[in-house]
Write a structure and sequence with these properties.
By secondary structure, the protein is mainly α. It has two domains: 255 residues, Fic-like fold, CATH 1.10.3290.10; 72 residues, Winged helix-like DNA-binding domain superfamily/Winged helix DNA-binding domain (Arc Repressor Mutant, subunit A, Orthogonal Bundle), CATH 1.10.10.10. 61% of the residues lie in helices and 4% in strands. The chain has 15 helices and four strands. The chain has a two-stranded antiparallel ribbon. A hairpin with a 6-residue loop joins strand 3 and strand 4. Helix 5 packs across helix 8, helix 6 runs antiparallel to helix 7 and helix 7 crosses helix 11. The termini are far apart.
Amino acid sequence: MSFTPKFKITTKINKQLVEIERVRGFLDAIKLKDDWFEDMQNEALILETHYSTHIEGTVLTLNQAKKILEGKEVKNVDIRDKRELINYRFAMDFISKYLGKKDPVTEGLIRELHKILVKEVRGGRVDPGKYRVIQNYVINSRTKNVIYTPPPPLEVPNLMKEFMEWLNSYQDLSPVLAAGIAQFQFVHIHPFLDGNGRTARLLSTLILYKTGYDFKRLFTISEYYDKDRSAYYQAIQTVRRNNMDMTYWLEYFIEGLWSQMIEIQNKGKRVIGAESIIKSLKEYDLSERHQKIIRYIVVNGKINNKQCQDVFKIIKRTATRDLTSLLNKGILERIGEKKGNYYILSKEISSKIRDIKGHH
């Protein structure tokens, strides 16, 4: 076995690994209603699916992606973009089957993942699930310059074999570091003609899922990459520029995951606050949907009529009735004129939230 990753565990890496462990403990300890976890998981899944495919060139908006993944008809979109999005969703479902499973990551599993990803889209015409037999290149989509030439095709089978041996035998290493190393090494080998970036991001997620670092499936690291794609590519390139030392890449990877953890923790705290708020409003005799609207606002800050329709799958008239009812009860406050108005919690209810937060 000759693949041995080179890196140093810096103070920054160490500190953020400790923080990630702390949030992991927080997520394991909090008790939330199943429907809350389900809603938050669905939202994370939509975000991850959208941003990971967006990095690779799809031009769908987040709203279009959300509608497509919910099975709604969206007009005037590239059918390949739509297919790529749906494939990624299927691939996420595929790796979810491995949550907490100890069986090894195999080349067969990776090939299967690749087949799902490229079915009927870019790369689908060039041997899905089969390693490349010709040289490929990584091109800068803007300048069209070659930014990376992967290893020759003849070396791919052996490189993948060595990589899998390492992946299934590393010890005394945080699974978070292993996931970061795996993501880089897969992109470095570039074993398929297309779909390598997506497969690499899914592989790192799979490793986290398998090792108990699934964080309740609430994280979406591709959003972090897509916000500053040049920083993402730059972090990958630094490994090659530094004699294959992965330290800077791992700092970048772990910072991305850490920033997600902080976001999840804050959202979790807001959800806990929402549950406490609902309990404190018993005298208002709230319907189940009224409670869900209040929870949504506590977590997201505000809601408008269109969001109310989309989130709770109701017609405009029903959304208006629900929001007006909460307004009349003094629970909500309307901001803005007819067009573009939205609803927030009233000052009285907001002060209750502050009181509850003070006790946490």
